[in-house]
Amino acid sequence: MKRKVIVAMILIVVICASFLLALSISPLKKLEGRIMNNTKKPVVFIVIDSLMNEQLQKVIKEGDAPALAYLMKNGQLHQEMISSYPTMSVTIDSTLLTGTYPNQHKVPGLIWFKEGENRIISYGSGISEIWHNGIKNVALDSVVHLNDSHLSKDVKTLHEELTKRNLSSASINGLLYRGNFQHRLNVPGLITMADLLPKEIHINGPTVFSLGTLAQYSTENNHHNFIWQRLGVNNEFTANELRYLIQQKKLPSFTLAYLPDADAPIHKYGPDYIKGIKKVDQAVQHILNSFPSWEDAIQDVTWIVLGDSGQSYILDDKNTSLIDLNQALEDYTFWERKNPNAQLAIAVNERMAYIYAIDEQVELSEIVNILKEDERIGFIAWKNGQTNYVVSPHSDGKLEFSPKGKYVDDYNQSWQVAGDISILDLNISKEQHIVYQDYPDALARLHGALHSQEGRFIIVDAKPSYEFIEKHSHNHAGGGAHGSLHKVDSTVPIIVTGTSVLPESDRLVDIKKWILQLLGDS
Predict the structure, then answer these.
(1) Which domain holds residue 232?
(2) Is residue 429 part of a domain?
(3) Distance between CA atoms of 302 and 255, rounded to whole angstroms?
(4) Which of 34, 217, 436, 510 lies at a CB distance of 3.0 to 4.6 Å from 207, suitable for a disulfide?
(5) Is the C-alpha dihedral spanning 394, 400, 403, 407 positive or negative?
(6) Closest by alpha carbon to 230, among 443, 429, 445, 14?
């Protein structure tokens, strides 16, 4: 009997960790009235998890990615688009959909501490972290709270903006999907039996909403074929759903399709692992084959293929590569569900982390001074009002910056800057122009993270090859990890085919505005 209980619990954890969002919605035929025609070419926006330029170029050169090579040959490639910060999927997706950084959209990271509720928010990471934060809490945060309350109501998603313009949109396997149409979700029986989620949930999503095997439209996505393949959060499922919309001529004005499979093996084997891109290409081939020819595909649709973040190789030796924050701050007590009145809370987002001073008696300067002794850390940052402060183990000085000053960067953002600009590798010309180097769009991105939430906290950001951990973290020693502000995590390629109009800048935060322009926004 004990073994059966353990097996059941493991199954629940695996299902929740692999796919916390296994849901179901009404069949597509009930959505027919919602599909609104547009005179502009529809846009299909394919996000490939952890797609990096160097690896993409290598696979194409070797002839192992014919679909991506075709889109590139008949379109344009920009090798270095700048991601959001921290470079974690939920924050990046929030930036893509809202056209804002976390100081406005309010999704600080994959893991963060919510001061008003005195608890860690997690949208799913390693098994130990999920267990530590409570499986039910993680399930509710991922399925309900992320889109319903954590993503700020003060910003509009691309789906919401398109509905205002009488244009339809779709989300396939996207974790951020808030829109204007209500969908009734039926939670899988196993999850309900375990009291992890209510039996019925209503969410507001885009016109067409597909998320996992029980939110499917295509008959190709047979439940039994995908039950052990992350319950449908995979490339094949996404490709099948998109093919169905194309073949049934139900493709809306805008479709976001998420291809996640390349990420996990890169975490395991490191950034040089390229087999994932080959599999991504097979999914893209499957999608393009929905048309009479690939020529028809690029004639009829605008295709955007984008990575979300890069990854840094993490050194094999765990004693060297892993920055243990519990160990570094061993003189303090740490938040746990069984110890909510601790001094500190730690929220590790792989190569960056938030450290919260819950106890008012703890001075942030104490934490900063301790961490400043570790040369594996790139920088440490905190805020006071609108002013941001940054220090580094590699500098005796301090950088201060805040919005609206005499210095202007490439994105026409103005800043007040003082102190040691080398900490964020800034270059300021005699004309008071800011040039970013190792940390792209550093001031806006770091300001966004520092002002993404309430409370007293610091940000620590690791140098390439290093990763933060805490007691419950899953580590990636010998593999790859992201999360940091550094360019190795922050730059991704984009392929644009079917239009000559490009984004106004090389930042993901400007993608939303560009897509609205493509679809007719004046």
Answers:
(1) 2-70+89-107+151-293+493-503
(2) no
(3) 11
(4) 34
(5) negative
(6) 14
Q: Residue 280 sits in a domain of what CATH number? A: 3.40.720
- How many separate domains does the chain show? 1
Supply φ then ψ for residue 415, to 5 degrees: -140, 150
| Amino acid making up residue 430 | K
Do the domain assignments include residue 102?
yes
pLDDT tens profile 41-98: 999 999 999 999 999 999 999 999 999 999 999 999 999 999 999 999 999 999 999 9
275-332 pLDDT, tens digit each: 999 999 999 999 999 999 999 999 999 999 999 999 999 999 999 999 999 999 999 9
Measured CA to CA in angstroms, residue 397 lies from 190, 247, 427, 459, 468 at distances of 55, 60, 16, 17, 24
Query: Which residues are paired to 387 by β-bridges?
Result: 384
451 found inside a domain = no
Rounded Cα–Cα distance for residues 203 and 354 (Å): 29
The secondary structure of residue 251, as a DSSP letter, is -
Residues in Cβ contact with 352 at an 8 Å cutoff, skipping those fewer than 6 apart: 85, 86, 109, 459, 460, 461, 462, 468, 483, 484, 485
d(CA 59, CA 51): 11
Instruction: Classify each residue of 237-259 as buried b or exposed e, where b means 16 or more C-beta atoms within 10 Å of its C-beta.
Output: bbbbbbbbbbeeebbbbbbbbbb
Task: For CA atoms 183, 186, 188, 190, give the dihedral sign.
Answer: positive
Q: Which residue has the tokens 């050169």?
A: 61
Alpha-helix residue ranges (DSSP H) falling in 134-247 = 135-140, 158-164, 189-193, 223-226, 235-247
Average confidence (pLDDT) over 464-478:
95
Helices and strands: H and E segment counts in the chain: 20, 24
Is 219 inside any structural domain? yes
What does the alpha-carbon distance between residue 161 and residue 419 come to, in Å, rounded to a whole number? Answer: 41
Least trusted range by pLDDT, from 142-146, 272-276, 388-392, 448-452: 142-146
